[in-house]
Amino acid sequence: MLIIDSKDCENIDKALKKYKKKFEKAKILLQLRERQSFTKPSVKRRGEVLKAVYKQQIASGKLEA
After folding, report:
1. What is the distance between the alpha carbons of residues 65 and 49, in angstroms, rounded to a whole number?
2. Which helix (H) or strand (E) holds 1?
3. What's the rounded Cα separation, in Å, for the pair 65 and 59?
4. What is the per-residue DSSP string for 30-52?
5. Quick check: 4 and 16 in contact, CB under 8 A?
6. CB within 8 A of 19, min separation 6: which ones?
7. What secondary structure letter does DSSP report for 64?
8. Contact call for residues 35 and 49 (beta carbons, < 8 A)
9. 8 Å CB contact between 2 and 20
10. Does the pLDDT of residue 65 top 80, yes or no?
11. What's the rounded Cα separation, in Å, for the pair 23 and 2?
12. CA distance to 28, 33, 41, 44, per residue, from 53 (Å)
C-alpha cells in the first residue's frame, strides 16, 4: 500500500504527482502483469538467454536493429 504524506496547504495535483511517482517506483503494475500467468523457470531462463544472444548480435554488428 502506498502512503503519501501531504500537508494541509498542499495542492491535490502535487499529491497526485507524488503518488504517481511512488507508484512507478514501486513497480506495482509490472508485478500485477507478471502474476497474471505462471511461467516456468526454464521458460523464463530461455527467454533471458535469447535476449542476451540478441543483444550480443546487435553489439557485434551481425544484426541490425
Report:
1. 18
2. none
3. 10
4. HHHHHHTS---HHHHHHHHHHHH
5. no
6. 2, 4
7. -
8. no
9. no
10. no
11. 7
12. 29, 25, 18, 14
Residues near 43 by beta carbon (within 8 Å), at least 6 away in sequence:
none
Query: Per-domain residue ranges for the chain?
Result: 12-60
Distance CA 18, CA 36 (A): 27
Cell numbers of 32, please?
500485477
- Cell numbers placing 8: 494541509
The per-residue pLDDT for range 5-46, each reduced to its tens digit, is: 877 777 888 888 988 999 899 998 889 998 999 999 999 999
Which residue has better confidence, 8 or 54? 54
Using CA atoms, how far apart are residues 15 and 41, in angstroms rounded to an integer? 39
Cell output for 62: 551481425
Query: Rounded to the nearest 10 degrees, what angle do helices 12-26 and 28-35 cross at?
Result: 50
Total residue length of the chain:
65
